[in-house]
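sry for the spam today, last one i promise. struct tokens for design, 572 residues
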């Protein structure tokens, strides 16, 4: 926490535990920049997955959370928006400001409320400013506010119930940007003049640190270790052993994997409003200013007892519409695309007032399926459609038609028409999302697949190639998420229209809409399971039955037996 531009996000990124925050375990930004496809961004920047860092004051808006780690201790880490005099006036009701200012301070206040330790950062090179002093006064006031039921016991639910238990938060002041010997060599008059004020606040001397260079992290580590020990003693927990936190992490790994849900769309279509409506609280900042959301905010949540990680993302404008020099917007789009790549299901939010799906939205839909994610469309702001002849159903059909024209494989993509602002039909979204994930991850029994193949080939056989009949002998699912199949044929390729026919028929038969169905053609002289000579003489198990057994066992074990096998062979 601290004034704008103090280096809070830089410190957040430094303390972020990349191991535990899997969302950030991808390769280099440069590499991902290439695969983003049509949406693209101009500046991959130096950042690799944390909060957006920029010299522009007021970059961070939402409260961003992750698991932090320092000195072997893991903890919940929160980045907040910069606090200045104006926002504090808003907080105390002295000034009526835009909903954005008010929402920013509410989010920051909530972060302070749920924390055991507040690291109050300021730019040590500037000395102590009036903004910092005001922030200190404000923090002292909220320091004695009730703390919610211990966040340790409530980490995943995100529902901070209030308790009457008063809790003292430790506030520590960090003088940032003092790398190397800057602190020792700087003229501290300005700082010392104001130290008395800080002392009066009972906050002790500032600790010189450099978030960018990592100086002073040992001091923060000692502080966190001390607080952790104290908290354990308070809660009556045994002394921490070295492996304790690792154990906790492993336990979390083994729990049911949450559904990763990314909320995507153009600016101002109502993504944040939808997230808040689903969560039933003002968790992210929503408002009429376009481009309000910047960081992709991931919120753990339970829907009907099922874990979900919902990610609100920045609105995506077409590259051409973005200002050339707007690095923050580029970074925000990059973050949104990263969230999409990690999602199981992506909800594309549209503004129903536009009547037609926009080119940019089609580009987002295209990126979602190219990345192998499952797509659901939310037609928002239906309350603003006053035309009685134009119903939610009409809109849903129009959207489906337009998507189909551009991307035939995306026909019948599920569309939910709703109004996030008044909550109408919002409850219909999550069942559709869960169904979409279930289908996307589905593994279809080989027998069922081959019966389907026989039927479709009987109905419409593949065209001859080079005067010879084309034979599709067998089909196997090599992978789910997205569904991927291997077609064993007597040719290396099947004509695209025929592949389309197979895909359409497959989608109709297995109800797999809103995702790419990947059909890979493999030339094979024989049906892979008809070779009886593979019988193991020792066990007597073999032929196609043995192969199929091993295949199914492999599929259960890894989900991608064939691809894995290939990879291993290459490595050798
Ligand atoms: N020299 C130096 N610069 C730093 C250090 N920490 C952060 N910065 C720079 O300060 C600028 C602001 O950093 P941010 O982390 O975005 O600051 P913030 O407090 O999150 O800013 P807001 O989002 O505006 O509240 C960036 O240009 C950083 O590179 C540091 O330790 N030393
Ligand atoms: N009438 C109406 N207004 C809505 C609805 N959903 C959102 N809004 C309004 O649309 C505006 C934008 O909402 P946000 O939720 O901030 O939109 P966003 O897509 O997150 O915007 P960015 O942060 O710019 O990407 C706000 O003024 C909302 O009140 C809706 O269902 N009906």
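last one done:
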């Amino acid at each position: 926490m601290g004034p704008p531009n103090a280096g809070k996000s830089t410190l957040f990124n430094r303390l972020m535990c990349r191991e535990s925050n899997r969302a950030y375990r991808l390769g280099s930004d440069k590499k991902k920049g290439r695969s983003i496809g049509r949406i693209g961004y101009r500046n991959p920047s130096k950042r690799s997955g944390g909060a957006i860092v920029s010299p522009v004051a007021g970059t961070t808006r939402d409260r961003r959370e992750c698991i932090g780690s320092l000195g072997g201790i893991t903890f919940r880490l929160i980045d907040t928006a910069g606090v200045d005099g104006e926002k504090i006036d808003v907080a105390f009701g002295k000034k009526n400001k835009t909903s954005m200012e008010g929402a920013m301070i509410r989010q920051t206040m909530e972060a302070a409320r749920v924390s055991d330790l507040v690291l109050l950062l300021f730019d040590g090179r500037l000395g102590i400013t009036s903004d910092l002093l005001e922030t200190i006064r404000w923090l002292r006031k909220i320091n004695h506010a009730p703390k919610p039921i211990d966040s340790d016991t409530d980490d995943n639910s995100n529902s901070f119930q209030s308790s009457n238990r008063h809790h003292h938060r430790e506030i520590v002041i960090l003088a940032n940007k003092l790398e190397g010997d800057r602190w020792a060599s700087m003229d501290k008059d300005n700082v010392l003049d104001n130290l008395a004020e800080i002392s009066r606040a009972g906050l002790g001397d500032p600790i010189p640190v450099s978030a960018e260079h990592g100086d002073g992290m040992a001091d923060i580590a000692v502080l966190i270790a001390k607080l952790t020990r104290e908290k354990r003693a308070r809660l009556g927990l045994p002394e921490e052993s070295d492996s304790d936190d690792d154990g906790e992490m492993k336990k979390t790994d083994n729990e049911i994997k949450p559904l990763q849900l990314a909320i995507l769309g153009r600016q101002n279509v109502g993504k944040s409003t939808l997230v808040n409506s689903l969560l039933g609280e003002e968790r992210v900042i929503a408002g009429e200013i376009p481009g309000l959301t910047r960081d992709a905010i991931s919120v753990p949540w339970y829907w009907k007892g099922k874990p979900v990680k919902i990610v609100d993302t920045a609105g995506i404008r077409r590259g051409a519409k973005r200002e050339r020099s707007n690095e923050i917007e580029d970074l925000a789009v990059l973050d949104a695309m990263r969230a999409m790549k990690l999602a199981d299901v992506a909800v594309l939010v549209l503004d129903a007032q536009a009547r037609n799906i926009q080119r940019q939205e089609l580009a987002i839909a295209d990126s979602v399926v190219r990345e192998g994610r499952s797509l659901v469309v939310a037609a928002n702001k239906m309350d603003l459609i006053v035309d009685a002849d134009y119903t939610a159903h009409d809109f849903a059909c129009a959207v489906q038609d337009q998507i189909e024209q551009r991307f035939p494989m995306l026909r019948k993509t599920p569309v939910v028409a709703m109004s996030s602002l008044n909550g109408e039909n919002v409850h219909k979204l999550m069942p559709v999302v869960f169904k979409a994930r279930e289908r996307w991850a589905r593994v279809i029994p080989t027998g069922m697949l081959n019966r389907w193949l026989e039927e479709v080939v009987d109905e419409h056989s593949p065209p001859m190639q080079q005067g010879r009949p084309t034979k599709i002998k067998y089909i196997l699912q090599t992978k789910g998420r997205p569904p991927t199949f291997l077609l064993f044929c007597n040719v290396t390729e099947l004509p695209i229209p025929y592949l389309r026919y197979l895909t359409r028929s497959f989608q109709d038969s297995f109800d797999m809409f809103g995702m790419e169905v990947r059909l890979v053609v493999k030339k094979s002289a024989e049906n892979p399971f008809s070779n009886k000579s593979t019988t193991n003489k020792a066990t007597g198990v073999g032929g196609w039955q043995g192969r199929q057994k091993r295949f199914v066992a492999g599929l259960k074990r890894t989900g991608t037996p064939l691809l894995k096998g290939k990879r291993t062979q290459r490595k050798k």
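The first helix runs from residue 8 to 15. ok im logging off now
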